[in-house]
Design brief:
- By secondary structure, this protein is of the alpha+beta class.
- The protein folds into 3 domains: 21-79, no CATH class; 82-176, Tyrosine recombinase, N-terminal domain (DNA polymerase, domain 1, Orthogonal Bundle); 196-397, Orthogonal Bundle (hpI Integrase, Chain A), CATH 1.10.443.
- Helix content is 49%, strand content 13%.
- The chain contains 14 helices and 9 strands.
Length: 415
């Protein structure tokens, strides 16, 4: 009679080489370790995988061990470690920064420092897997506006394309990242336009504002960007043809130190935001009248202070010294005006008047293609996506009446 096994019912099979081990940490997470190679000094190279369940890390471990079986062990020297932050910094400084403005560079560097590096900066680039990346984006979606999350994904996608070409990673993991397609509840990346009530308060209050009256009327009824309005010179204004020509805009220039920290910010006269932003606009009569009145006031001031303020090369809304105004100075004027009129908590800012311009036209069912051209958008899709809520409200509410009128005309002709 065969002898009974003492450990009957227990799994006696040993885990094979390279299958690694799985265990649960004190914090409740599961961890798997897999041997992926050996350093030149003979020490083992281990890959650590983390997950919320045993099954999750088991799947990750299976993928890693399969890769080891198919491609063999890796061999590296101690100096071969590629940390995510150092590789990302090198790529950004060499390939990305030279192609963008200093303002965009500053924004992206803040994004890298405050978001991406906080999660992956101290890791080796190979330790950043799809699970970690997806969790990172899930967390960002819960706390950051969707547009910023999409910018992060775009930036990381460009970096991973580089990393794949340099054979630092095997594939671009960003291609498999999933983001919510719908906007988070209560979020709105577009700065709000003035409501009908706010428009009445603002434009009635402008009667007493010598400087802000022509500025805000020009903003709201031409759709200029703040940088375009500040850079506008008298030679760009043609009172005979009632036109404004947009050719330049102010740009913020930022200088960085060796560590990528912004150390100096200046505003300079430069090109418009896009090629499509160079345009000639026909002014409505209220803008013509406001600018003519401002021109006359500047002529009177010239005689008082003995300085030239109205020649073709002078800025339309220059300072009393004839210098170009700054973005921050213009914003301060608006903030004080809003406080005087009880509108400081409404979220109104300089761009609100540009959005009000587009909103008013679309509410009156102006062709979106024309609105796009007036706004200086390169593509009409930009206008349609940003103001889709206005178009749907203004157009679809009267669509039934429009179709009824068409049907009435058809049946009248038939009868």
């Amino acid at each position: 009679m065969p002898r009974e096994l003492k450990n009957k019912g227990k799994n006696l099979a040993r885990r094979g080489n390279n299958e690694g081990s799985i265990y649960q940490r004190r914090d409740g997470r599961w961890c798997a370790t897999v041997t992926t190679g050996y350093k030149k000094d003979g020490s083992i190279i281990r890959k650590y995988l983390y997950g919320q369940s045993r099954q999750e890390v088991a799947r990750q471990m299976s993928a890693v061990t399969t890769d080891v079986f198919e491609n063999g062990y890796t061999t590296i020297t101690p100096g071969d470690k590629k940390y995510f932050s150092s590789v990302f910094d090198e790529w950004f400084a060499t390939f990305k920064a030279p192609t963008i403005s200093s303002v965009t560079e500053a924004k992206l560097r803040n994004m890298m420092k405050n978001h991406i590096y906080k999660s992956f900066g101290d890791m080796e680039i190979e330790q950043v897997d799809l699970i970690k990346l997806q969790r990172f984006f899930n967390q960002e979606m819960a706390s950051v506006c969707i547009q910023s999350v999409r910018h992060m994904r775009q930036l990381l996608n460009q970096f991973y394309n580089y990393a794949v070409k340099q054979k630092l990673v095997k594939e671009n993991l960003i291609a498999d990242i999933k983001l919510k397609s719908a906007k988070r509840e209560g979020s709105d990346t577009l700065k709000p336009a003035l409501t009908n009530e706010q428009r009445m308060i603002v434009f009635n209050a402008l009667a007493e504002e010598k400087l802000l009256r022509p500025i805000l009327i020009t903003f709201a009824f031409t759709g200029l960007r703040p940088g375009e309005l500040i850079a506008m010179q008298w030679r760009n204004v043609d009172f005979n043809k009632s036109t404004i020509t947009i050719q330049r805009a102010i740009q913020r220039e930022i200088k960085f130190d060796e560590l990528g920290n912004a150390i100096e910010k200046t505003e300079v006269l430069g090109r418009t935001k896009t090629a499509g932003s160079v345009r000639t606009l026909r002014m409505p009569e209220n803008v013509v009248n406001a600018l003519k009145s401002w021109y006359f006031r500047q002529q009177c001031l010239e005689q008082e202070i003995g300085k030239n303020l109205t020649s073709g090369d002078k800025f339309v809304f220059c300072t009393k010294e004839g210098e170009m105004r700054t973005y921050s100075g213009l914003r301060s004027l608006l903030i004080r005006f809003l406080k005087r009129n009880g509108l400081e908590d409404t979220g109104i800012n300089l761009y609100s008047f540009r959005h009000t311009f587009a909103t008013m036209l679309l509410e009156e069912r102006e062709n979106p293609k024309i609105v796009s051209s007036l706004m200086g958008h390169v593509k009409v899709e930009t206008t349609l996506s940003r103001y889709s809520h206005v178009i749907s409200n203004a157009v679809y509410e009267t669509t039934a009446d429009t179709l009824n009128n068409v049907y009435t005309k058809i049946t009248t002709v038939e009868n």
